[in-house]
Amino acid sequence: MRFVIETADLTKKYGPLVAVDKLDLKVKTDTIHGFLGPNGAGKTTTIKMLIGLLKPDGGSVSVLGQELGWDKPDVRSRIGYMPELPKLPKHLKGRELIDIYGRMYGVTKEERKKQIPKLLDMVGLKERGIDLIITYSKGMKQRLGIAQALLNEPELVILDEPSLGLDPVGMVEVREIMHEIAKEGVTVFLSSHLLHEVEQVCTHVTIINKGVELASGTLKQISAKVKGPVTIEAEVDKLSKAVIKKVEKLSFVTGVSKDGKKLLVEVKTRDDVRSQISQAITAGGGIVISMDSKGKSLEDVFMDLLVKHKRKKRSQ
Fold first, then answer.
1. β pairing state of 3-14 and 26-28
2. β pairing state of 66-67 and 79-82
3. pLDDT band at residue 228 under the 50/70/90 scheme
4. Structural contact between residues 2 and 28, judged by C-beta atoms closer than 8 angstroms
């Protein structure tokens, strides 16, 4: 199966408002695919159509190789889903809630007995499964929501704003969980407006606005849509003229400058050339202490695409 999600001309209207406008979405297997857009872009509406909670007004939806209809519970049972800010019953214990979801999924008692401890351990709640949900922090509730989405051992997990409202520590924890899910061979479809988080975790990205796709592809392909120089910033011990000359000779280098112990190298490619620069520095007698790439980020791409889309809408 090449695509786990594939839509064609997918459309959803709320009266005169077109929430999703002829969306062609493709999500490859074995990827962590970010679904980006500002508030009101149509992300949650799209997700609800993907899992069968909303009926499209036009177009088609194929999930896990089958066209998704209202009579396809077997397809939906292979999908894990966590809604935006999941509302969990506070009077239950974490383990109890996962067990109830397991029964709803039709998971046997023996399977639940094996799966629940494993999942609670994966999301970092092994020691808190016997505690009431009312005592959980926001981050813990998000992680419990992810655990329930994995209970039926899905082939595809759809997460709607999993990092929303979390502090930096909570964001890192959720990011690590998503990497763990992907290692298990599960495709992750992640809706978010937190661009930095998406850049940290996703392999592929689709950007939408007002229900219209603006761009889709790998992170590298999306970044290439915005032109502009990339600067490699290297902190170098023993930074000498010999080091600078060696770096200047690299074919992809367009400029080199010095700022204290820092070597600023402007390059004309968006490929990762840090290893070549490091080798040149070493060949010149320098020692690399640290190195980072400074260039247009996913946020820059995102904002440029939104501005272009707004201009296009005004001109129509």
1. antiparallel
2. unpaired
3. low
4. yes
